[in-house]
Fold:
Amino acid sequence: MAVAEKIAPGASSTVYHVKKGEQGTVLDIDDFNLWYGTSQALFDVSMTIERGLVTALIGPSGCGKSTLLRSLNRMNDLIDGLSIKGSVLLEGADIYDKRADVIALRKRMGMVFQKPNPFPMSIFENVVYPLRVDGVRDRRRLEETAEQALRGAAFWDEAKDRLQENALGLSGGQQQRLCIARAIAGDPEVLLMDEPCSALDPIATAKIEELIDELRGHYSIAIVTHNMQQAARVSQNTAFMYLGRLIEYGETRAMFTVPKVRQTHDYVTGRFG
Amino acid sequence: MDSTRHTVRSYDDKLNQLNNFISEMGGLAEAQLAAALDAVGKRNSELAAKVIVQDEAIDKIEAKVDEAAVELLALRQPMADDLRQVLASLKIAQILERVGDYAANVAKRATVLNQLPQVEPARSVPRMGRLVEQMIHEVLDAYAKRDADAALRVWHRDEGVDSLYDSVFRELLTYMMEDPRNITACTHLLFVAKNIERIGDYTTNVAEIIYFLVKGVPLTEARPKADTTSFTVFNPPAS
Structure:
């Protein structure tokens, strides 16, 4: 992966009014730029992710919110011609440092995707997968972790009697909670969620939202969502992005009631375009 | 912040409709109060009867506002100033309906007053009413223009109404003590004055709602009050 040398001129014009977390900052994105080949997808993005809080990334399609989220655990590394400039500090250490261990990084940053992606194996094996990768074989530890993670994902009661069943037989909402259980089984610091509810029905969506609320505090969560009401409901801070730039980043309540930037206002009230 | 249109055109149409309902209601409430005051000041019972009948028109628009607001909330989940617009419409409609009721009550009392011999304060009460009528006019203007400063100016003017009410209250008590035959008319006038004073208070509430609608933050300043009648003790001179 090449690191671009081109330096974008001008200071960032983002408007900030961020709610500070009581537990400090977990991620510090500083002047981050990203190119897919020659086309720039992110411009001078600077923001913090507060520890223990839920941060929502919103904006119209193509605004760069998913790109930004995927940059946080270096998932974009897999794309050819990708280059970046700037830094993402996870507890002070740059995740794009040459010496950084990407596998270790991804364990610290659990990820949940738009479409539930359980592995074609049992519910139990899905949940303990992160431990298997680490070579854990102690049965008791695996069982304890599975229960803890499934409870954490509000899925234990439904799953406890069918742990050995194939995960692909679960409903979409159950599969998504299983994926969240799998993400938290590795005990990550940050949970990245990319449209975690857009493939789910309203009831399953409500369950995931309730779960996000319960996980908050223990985990720091960054969520990309197209559903603005959902962003308003689940997050404490909201970042509005447009055309690859961070336009406004602030306390969710203010973002949806008295946004400070015209573009944010037009987007959250449904006037965009 | 509302110059651009919503992606969904019918959303704009519905919000505009809500706006128009409030303007229509406001115009009616203002006219009703003006007519009721005329009915008192000019001893016109025919006009009073008209006011009483027309009150229903305001009630009908309020029902339409309720319906449109509920539909907007349910179907559009409005955000930011759109949400404040819907909430403001609901609250202002309720207030204007009350203003209409007070105007109708003034008209009812006018029909009684007009059957009694005229007492002097029957002229100073409508004067107080004109001041409140002016306030309603200005607050509706502030609403139409989304002008928080203009709303704030109306809000401050209620102090003048309170002072006038205070003096009307004392004047009426004096007339009643002077001649017990004045008591019936003066008591009705006292209620008329009280109704007007209440409308003044409601007008300040509308001003507060407009301020919140425009600014997104509530008006926190304490409103100056000059109505001391609740604490007034007025002993008749010992004879």
